[in-house]
Structures are given as structure tokens and as C-alpha cells.
Amino acid sequence: MIPSVFTYKKAGSVSEALQLKAENEDSKFLAGGHSLIPTMKLRLSSPSVLIDISKIDTLRSITEEGNQIVIGSLVTHAEIVNSDVIKTKVAIMSEGASMIGDVQVRNCGTIGGSIAHADPAADWPAILKTVEATVVIEGESGKREVNVEDFFQGVFTTDLTEDEIITAIKVPVPASGTKGTYQKFMQPASRFAIVGCAAMLTISNGVCQKARVTIGGAASTSFRDLGVEKALEGKELNAQNIENASKIAGNGVQMTSSHFATNSYRQHLTKVYTQRALESLI
Amino acid sequence: MNHEKSSILSKVNDSGTLNWEKPTSHKFEFHLSNSPIFHYITILKLSAMATINLKINGKQQVVDVDPKTPVLWVLREHLNLVGTKFGCGIAQCGACTIHIAGKATRSCTLPVSQVEGKEITTIEGISGEGDDPVQKAWLEHDVAQCGYCQTGQIMTATALLKENPSPTDEEIMEAMHGNICRCATYTRIRAAIKTASNS
Ligand SMILES: Cc1cc2nc3c(=O)[nH]c(=O)nc-3n(C[C@H](O)[C@H](O)[C@H](O)COP(=O)(O)OP(=O)(O)OC[C@H]3O[C@@H](n4cnc5c(N)ncnc54)[C@H](O)[C@@H]3O)c2cc1C
Ligand code: FES
Ligand code: FES
């Protein structure tokens, strides 16, 4: 439980953080520390410099800009659970955040830290793909925005380069008539997802206009299940149609096998949790 | 400067000037166990020190520590507030839970410089006399077995009751989930929180 020796520096602004990053090879940003510090203590990671960004107040706000909600990268899971704007406009996010870890984890862990870490069992990747979020990134060469679909690239791997920082996550406010839910089968101690399903449906007169269904935890990275979405769109949302769509969830995807769950069990859970999520929306 | 991964005992500090010396004083051997953790803490003490102002249990405290030192060690080693316990050190067990601005927070993964200027409460600050309703309920239900996890349990329970004075069983289980008890006192913890919430 002892990390390798490292130096600690504090950044007061995004530009200072980027400058420190450029000056210090083998450095890492520190946000809530709830993934990074345990991995360092377990010696799975040994950066020689930590750049503490937790005091950059400009990254802490939740604002509405036009038809989007802009969530600063340092906003904690607990702040998302309690945010009135998020609760009323994209409730799936506050519901999902309330299931992350435990109360202490939620009080410290940040949305930016979670997506930068890109743990395949984390909850945000699936939820953010379903709400079709965009990640706002800043680097020495300027600002860029990346669709979450392209942001997550694999196990602990993202589109972020070494000299970049995530500043915000932008979430479009879903059309009226849209309902969403996040449901997961979790590892009982850590509560990381063994399989999680983030589903969002836009419903008009009982017919599904638009479906977004993402599975997390099951494979090396979360994935939108386009087969399930297609099976739902344009159809009446009844128990039979939902069962038919859920039956094909995860088909053809290489699932993870671990001591918590085999790949065939994860295949099974993917179908069960897709069905439960969808049924709860009608 | 090479301060990479070799044996901890042969390390130099970040400024490269102070060499580690093997402790010889009786005080060291008595006060710090031979566990590598304490060697590491001592190295931290030797490296890049800073003066940090903390507000703990309503009292202003000044400590001279490396700013990356986890709050847990600052409490236990520098301020002798040993009520807060070290369980796992990697954010898994909840034994080290304290309140930061009233919210239950693990202190083992929290660099002290992140809590400068924030209101910190430890078990010692819950009540001077041990007569907080939660502490009284804990005695009434004889919750503790070995007792090691109980500081963390009480800190999480008091934070919960501040936010939600009458939690349901389900809300209690959800809120207390991050505090692990090796002796499995969970049912008594739940009963004691119920009692405290009614008083
Ligand atoms: C006991 C326990 C249970 C947990 N259970 C769950 C769970 O059920 N579901 C779940 O999803 N998660 C869970 N987590 C993880 C938790 O959500 C973490 O808070 C989160 O993964 C990381 O956020 P952080 O702010 O703590 O990041 P840190 O640990 O500070 O950083 C993580 C990584 O992201 C980088 N980083 C951080 N911020 C930025 C930024 N703005 N820009 C670029 N890079 C950045 C860091 O350099 C580091 O590599 C659990 C953690 C613990 C300890
Ligand atoms: S000692 Fe902090 S969570 Fe275990
Ligand atoms: S009382 Fe022994 S660990 Fe909880």
C-alpha cells in the first residue's frame, strides 16, 4: 500500500495544468483520486509527478447552454445525483450516478476522472453513450470536442493524448417524451458493473421513435447495441416487442470472462438487464 | 535525479539533499512500527514540506508536512488524532472515514493539500463527551465487536443522519455500504442508526 515516490504539484488553472503537464514527463492529473491513488498504492501505476487539478474551480460547474447541459470535469458523482437541472432534464444521469460505488466514493470521485480512467466496469461510459454526450478537451494546441462514441477506445484507453485535459462533458437535453434508466448487475463489494444497461427511449403514442441502448461492464469497452435499438425503433412498446429486442442484446459481442462472471454469464446478464431496463420505461 | 522505485530505504528526497538515515532513537522504534508504511511516512516528512492550515473539529491547526501526505496520516501521525483508523489504505474499507464539509469522505486517499480551508470533522469532534445520539445508540446496542471499523461506521452514520434524519432500512444500507466490518456487526449498526434517528 505504498506508492512509488512521486512529486506533487498543484495547478490553479487549466492553462497552468497544461503547462505543468508539458514540463513534466511521466506525470498524471489528480482529480478525486479514487482510481488513481489506489492504483498507485497497488503499484499498477507509478507516475513520477502528480498534478493536482482538484482546485481548478472553473471545472466544477453544471450549466445549461442552449439545448445542452455542460458538466465540468471536476463535478463529483454526488453533485450529479443532487443536481436539480440534471434530475429534471437527464434523470438517467443522476440515477446512474447514485449507483456508483458508495457514498464516500461519490463524494470524491469526478465524472472527468472516471471517463479519463476508462475502466471497462465503470458506469459513466455506458450512460454517456446513451445520452450521446460530447467530451470537451483542452491541450497545448487548443480546444477540441469528441463524441463519446469515439472517446472510449478500449480497456483503460481513450482518445485523450498525454498533454490534454478534459474540461467538460456536454449532454444534449433529450427530446420531450424521452425516458431513460440505468440498471446494473454489480460486483457486490465495489459495485462496479458486471453488466450495466443504459437505455433511453423517445416514445410518442406508445410507439418508440428513438432508442439508445448501451451495455457496459460486459466487454472490454461499453458498446451501443445497434441491433436492439433497431428492433425497437418504429415499434409499439409492448412486452412482446421488448422481449424480442432484448433477446438479441449483446449477440456477436466478445464478452469478458473474469472470476466474477464468465463470458456466457455476461451474455445472459446482458439480455436480462436490457429487458429489465426497457420494461421499466413502459 | 533518480527517485525511482528502488528500495524505499535508499531513497533521497525530492530536492535530492536529505538522505534517509536509519532510525536509531528509542522514540522512533517505540512510536513507529517497522512496517514499511511508516518508513514511507518518514520519508514523506523529509521531502518537500509545506505549512498547511487545517480546520479540524472547529480548531485551527497548522502542520508542516509534504502536501501530498494523505489526511489520515496527518491526523494520526502529526496531530495525534488516532481515533481515525487505517484499514486498507486504498479506498476500499471505509475505516478512515471523516467528514469534509459535513460529507463522509475517505481520508486515506486524500492529499492533505486538497482539504486546506475546508471544515474537517473526525470522530474526536463528533461530541466532546461521547454523548451524540449516534454514540449513545451505539452503546445501547453494544454495536462494536473488535471495534476497529467503528470510527468509520459512526462517521458515515452521522453524515447520513445529518442529510436524512429518518432513513429507511434500505437508505441505511445504501449509505453504509462503503464501510466494511470484518466482525459483521451490520445488523446492530442498522438498529443503532434507527434508534439514533428516533431520538
Ligand atoms: C471502493 C470503490 C468503488 C467504486 N465503484 C465504482 C462503481 O461502482 N462504478 C464506477 O463507475 N466507478 C466506481 N469507482 C471509481 C470511481 O468512480 C472513481 O471516482 C473514478 O473512476 C475516478 O474519478 P476520480 O475523480 O477519483 O479520478 P482520479 O483517480 O483522480 O483520476 C483517474 C484518472 O483520470 C485522470 N484524470 C482525472 N481527471 C482528469 C481530467 N480532467 N482530464 C484528464 N485526465 C484526468 C487521472 O490522471 C487518472 O489517470 C469506485 C472506486 C472505489 C475506490
Ligand atoms: S483505510 Fe481508507 S478506505 Fe480503507
Ligand atoms: S467491529 Fe470488528 S471490524 Fe467492525
In brief:
The complex is a heterodimer of chains A (282) and B (199). Chain A is an alpha+beta fold.
Structural class by secondary-structure content of chain B: alpha+beta
State the end-to-end CA separation of chain A.
48 Å
Instruction: Give a count of the beta strands of chain A, DSSP E runs of length 2 or more.
Output: 14
Global shape of chain A: globular
- Helix tally of chain A? 12
Whole-Å distance between the termini of chain B? 60 Å
Largest interface: A-B, 32 and 42 residues
H/E topology pattern of chain B: HHEEHEEEHHHH
State the helical fraction of chain B.
25-40%
Total strands of chain B: the figure is 5
Ions, cofactors, ligands: which are bound?
A: flavin-adenine dinucleotide, FE2/S2 (inorganic) cluster
The number of helical segments of chain B is 7
Overall mean pLDDT of chain A stands at 96
> What is the 3D shape of chain B?
globular
Q: What topology, given as strand order, has the largest sheet of chain B?
A: 2-1-5-3-4
Percentage of residues in helical conformation of chain A:
25-40%
Strand order, largest beta sheet of chain A: 4-5-10-6-7
Order of helices and strands of chain A: EHEHEEEHHHHHHEEHEEEEEEEHHH
- Report the structural category of chain A: alpha+beta
Taken as a percent bin, the fraction of beta residues of chain A is: 25-35%
Oligomer: heterodimer
What does it look like?
Chain A has 282 residues and is α+β, with helices and mostly antiparallel strands. Helix content of chain A is 33%, strand content 28%. Chain A contains twelve helices and 14 strands. Chain A has a five-stranded antiparallel beta sheet. A four-stranded antiparallel beta sheet of chain A has the order 11-12-13-14, with helices on both faces. In chain A, helix 10 runs antiparallel to helix 11 (239-247) and helix 11 (239-247) packs antiparallel against helix 12. The termini of chain A are far apart. Chain B is α+β, with helices and mostly antiparallel strands and 199 residues long. Chain B has helices at 26-31, 36-46, 71-78, 133-140, 150-163, 169-176, 186-198; strands at 50-56, 59-65, 97-100, 103-106, 119-121. In chain B, strands 2-1-5-3-4 form a five-stranded mixed beta sheet, with helices on both faces. Chain B is globular. Helices cover 34% and strands 13% of the residues of chain B. Mean pLDDT of chain B is 82; it is low at 1-36 and 38-45. Classes of the chains: A alpha+beta (282), B alpha+beta (199). The A-B interface holds A 1-2, 4-8, 10, 30, 33-34, 37-38, 41-42, 46, 48, 50, 52, 54-55, 78, 101-105, 107-108, 189-191 and B 3-5, 8, 11, 14, 36-37, 40, 43, 47-48, 66-68, 70, 88-92, 94, 97, 100, 103-106, 109-111, 113-114, 156, 159-160, 174-175, 177-180. The structure holds flavin-adenine dinucleotide (FAD) and FE2/S2 (inorganic) cluster (FES) (2 copies). One FE2/S2 (inorganic) cluster binds at residues 86-89, 91-96, 106, 108 of chain B.
